Amino acid sequence: MLVLIRSKQRVIGAVNAIQDAIALANWINTLNADATWDETAKVFSEYQSERHPWAQHAFTDSQVMSKLVAMVKNEIHLYPYSPQNNP
Question: Whose CA is closest to 5, among 52, 53, 72?
Answer without folding.
Answer: 72
